[in-house]
Amino acid sequence: MKPDGPPEKMRLDRWLWSTRHYKTRNMASEACKKNWVKINGHPAKPSKNIEIGKTVSIKLGPLEKIVRVEGLSERRLSASLAQNLFTDLTRPEEYEKAKEHRKLLAPRVVNKKGLGRPTKKQRRDLEEFLYSD
Prior knowledge:
Largest sheet: 5 strands, antiparallel
CATH class of the largest domain: Alpha Beta
Radius of gyration: 17 Å
Shape: globular
CATH superfamily of the largest domain: RNA-binding S4 domain
Strand order of the largest sheet: 3-2-5-6-7
Strand content: 15-25%
Order of helices and strands: EHHEEEEEHEHH
Distance between the termini: 43 Å
């Protein structure tokens, strides 16, 4: 029987999903497998247990976001409640740098008029090119 209240530990991929850093749990797992997520500076597998007080580094495109775990939740919460589960330690300069990086890339990514959306393969190739390590 489960005790009432928040858990003491939970899987890293589930925490990333529940705090809305990634849209799906599968995306969170893939990010861990690509070493885009680190706990206290060390690469972490999706199944790694996370505890309150740990520092998590998350690579979201050109942004390296650093957060401290403040709480755990068994289920996905609304965006406003999910923000209570972590403290953002990322410097404001990092956000500005990522914003500028996206502005520089935006004109190059656009297809010529009339060609439509990129295919799934083209999108995957583009993501691999832009966000590979």
